[in-house]
């Protein structure tokens, strides 16, 4: 059985859990990370030298890095319905997965750490304003894309890209500051909530 190492509250672990739910993959999960087993032990570092969750063990195969893991799972467990094999359709899914990691994920970091985690190292008012503005700019990009597709981030059908993007959208609505009005993002948020995997793993790791 697939083993997932990482605490369920981690946004990156939740990518893997939600993907498993979409593909009906049975798994066992162990709590690793802050507040649980340390990822800095020799045991864990042998699996992931970066000391980060998630890590999966699929038989004798070990893999880390959440976006690599979810791409592996759809390839390994018949996930072509959410990760197409045709080159151009797959590229459109991949570009949004990569955009989430390179642009959207970075833009919400400071505001989230300041307003939700209450990190003492992230309380500079100027940096917080800049962080909120950068996050809002990226969410506006997403809103325009969702307005164009009328449904999901890469097109009319749910795809693998909606897993990292959808989790980031949850984080957007759960972070307390005045958000710009983004109707397509709001509709997308409610659309995702119709999926059992999202209801279970998309709302901060709780049903």
TrEMBL record:
Domain GST N-terminal stretches: 1-81
Keyword Transferase set for record: yes
Entries under InterPro entries matching the protein: Glutathione-S-Trfase_C-like (IPR010987), Glutathione-S-Trfase_C_sf (IPR036282), Glutathione_S-Trfase (IPR040079), Glutathione_S-Trfase_N (IPR004045), GST_C (IPR004046), Thioredoxin-like_sf (IPR036249)
Pfam families noted in UniProt: GST_C (PF00043), GST_N_2 (PF13409)
Domain GST C-terminal: 86-207
Alphabetically ordered keywords of this record: Transferase
Molecular functions per Gene Ontology: transferase activity
The keyword Transferase appears for this protein: yes
Transmembrane segments: none
Family note: Belongs to the GST superfamily.
Protein known as: Glutathione S-transferase
Organism: Pseudomonas koreensis
Upper taxonomic lineage: Bacteria, Pseudomonadati, Pseudomonadota, Gammaproteobacteria, Pseudomonadales
């Amino acid at each position: 059985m697939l083993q997932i190492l990482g605490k369920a509250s981690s946004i990156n672990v939740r990518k893997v859990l939600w993907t498993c739910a979409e593909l009906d993959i049975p798994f066992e999960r162990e709590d690793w990370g802050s507040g649980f087993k340390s990822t800095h032990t020799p045991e864990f570092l042998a699996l992931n030298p970066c000391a980060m969750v998630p890590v999966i063990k699929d038989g004798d195969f070990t893999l880390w890095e959440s976006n690599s893991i979810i791409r592996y799972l759809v390839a390994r467990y018949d996930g072509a319905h959410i990760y197409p094999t045709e080159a151009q359709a797959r590229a459109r899914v991949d570009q949004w997965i990569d955009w989430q990691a390179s642009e959207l994920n970075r833009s919400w970091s400071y505001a989230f750490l300041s307003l939700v985690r209450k990190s003492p190292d992230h309380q500079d008012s100027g940096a917080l304003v800049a962080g909120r503005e950068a996050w809002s700019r990226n969410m506006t990009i997403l809103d325009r894309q969702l307005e164009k597709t009328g449904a999901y981030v890469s097109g009319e059908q749910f795809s693998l890209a909606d897993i990292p993007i959808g989790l980031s959208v949850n984080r957007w609505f759960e972070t307390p500051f005045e958000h710009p009005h983004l109707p397509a993002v709001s509709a997308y948020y409610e659309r995702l909530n119709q999926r059992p995997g999202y209801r279970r793993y998309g709302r901060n790791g709780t049903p």
